[in-house]
């Protein structure tokens, strides 16, 4: 079930459709949080806390939906097109796959990739007495463990989590604006070589005096605290992945050698000149500057002894 592209009937509808068109610098990504037909309290708590971290660029579906992304992509692609979103989190529960959480991404309203996680333990924000962060703040994300660079499943999980919580692009972030930290730690692999547990933790930051220019940073856990196990992973198609990571030509600025700009936009150029022979430079013809006058030896003055000899 797909939405047919509609034509704008008025100026307001036209602005809405133009906002959805591809841009050189895309809008912030919106995430969907969807409940499956059967869920558990663990999954509901997990979706609720992840939604709190993702606000305001998030939409929470409170009603049940008959949705199974690994079996049928139609429903999630319909929701993505309808809500103009590129990220989704689906929670469900069954005897075969208890406390099931699916995180994924879409490209051009088609599923790009997704990963299925089992929530083995969940400690909610309400269970921690720490102060929560403000809405819409960018987190500092830390990934601990070599497995995030070696294990293909964890490399995919790292990429999806970074997309989920990175927020809007920013060149600089104030230290005072860094209110919380997300750490993701890869546990040791199982006896048969399967991927180990993944520990998802969230901390608030507190800046305190340190006696130097840089403050001392203290962390206090605020939740959610999740123990996750990787189940199924769907990698993206090669052609779709190439299109998804393709950069517009306008953003690929070709750097010109020896030309730079300052903060005000003024243009500066650097010119490289060969060795200059100052002695051969043509100057004004002044007797005082002539070379033969400088090189001419000074006249010898007569002394009293010389005068006596001459007599």
Walk me through what this model shows.
This protein is an alpha+beta fold. The protein has a domain at 28-236: Brix domain (Rossmann fold). 23% of the residues lie in helices and 27% in strands. The chain is built from eight helices and twelve strands. The protein has helices at 11-20, 41-54, 74-83, 147-150, 152-165, 238-244, 291-295, 304-310, and strands spanning 31-35, 58-64, 87-92, 100-107, 110-123, 140-144, 180-186, 198-208, 216-221, 225-234, 259-261, 267-269. The strands form two sheets. Strands 1, 2, 3, 4, 5, 6, 7, 8, 9 and 10 form a ten-stranded mixed β-sheet that branches. Strands 11-12 form a two-stranded antiparallel ribbon. A hairpin with a 5-residue loop joins β11 and β12. The longest helix is centred in the first third of the chain and has 14 residues, at 41-54. The N and C termini lie far apart (131 Å). The model has no long low-confidence stretch (mean pLDDT 86). This is rRNA-binding ribosome biosynthesis protein rpf2. It comes from Coemansia aciculifera.
């Amino acid at each position: 079930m797909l939405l047919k592209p509609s034509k704008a009937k008025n100026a307001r509808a036209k602005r809405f459709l133009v906002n959805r068109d591809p841009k050189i610098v895309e809008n912030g990504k919106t995430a969907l949080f969807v409940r499956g037909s059967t869920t558990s309290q663990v999954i509901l708590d997990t979706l609720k806390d992840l939604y709190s971290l993702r606000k305001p660029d998030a939409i929470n579906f409170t009603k049940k939906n008959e949705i199974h992304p690994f079996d049928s992509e139609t429903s999630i692609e319909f929701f993505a097109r309808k809500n103009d979103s590129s990220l989704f989190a689906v929670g469900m529960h069954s005897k075969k796959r208890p406390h099931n959480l699916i995180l994924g991404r879409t490209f051009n309203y088609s599923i790009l990739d997704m990963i299925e996680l089992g929530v083995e333990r969940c400690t909610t924000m309400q269970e921690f007495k720490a102060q929560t962060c403000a809405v819409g703040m960018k987190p500092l994300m830390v990934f601990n463990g070599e497995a995030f660079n070696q294990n293909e499943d964890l490399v995919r999980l790292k990429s999806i989590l970074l997309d989920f919580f990175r927020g809007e692009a920013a060149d600089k972030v104030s230290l005072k604006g860094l209110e919380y930290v997300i750490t993701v730690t890869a546990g040791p692999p199982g006896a048969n070589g399967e991927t180990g547990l993944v520990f998802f933790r969230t901390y608030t930051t507190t800046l305190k005096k340190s006696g130097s220019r840089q403050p001392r940073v203290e962390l206090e856990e605020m939740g959610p605290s999740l123990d996750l196990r990787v189940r199924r992973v769907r990698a993206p198609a090669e052609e779709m992945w190439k299109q998804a990571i393709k950069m517009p030509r306008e953003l690929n600025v070709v750097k010109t050698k020896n030309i730079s700009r300052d903060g005000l936009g003024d243009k500066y150029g650097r010119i490289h000149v060969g060795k200059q022979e100052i002695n051969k430079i043509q100057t004004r013809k002044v007797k005082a500057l002539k070379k033969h006058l400088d090189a001419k030896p000074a006249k010898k003055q007569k002394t009293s002894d010389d005068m006596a000899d001459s007599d």
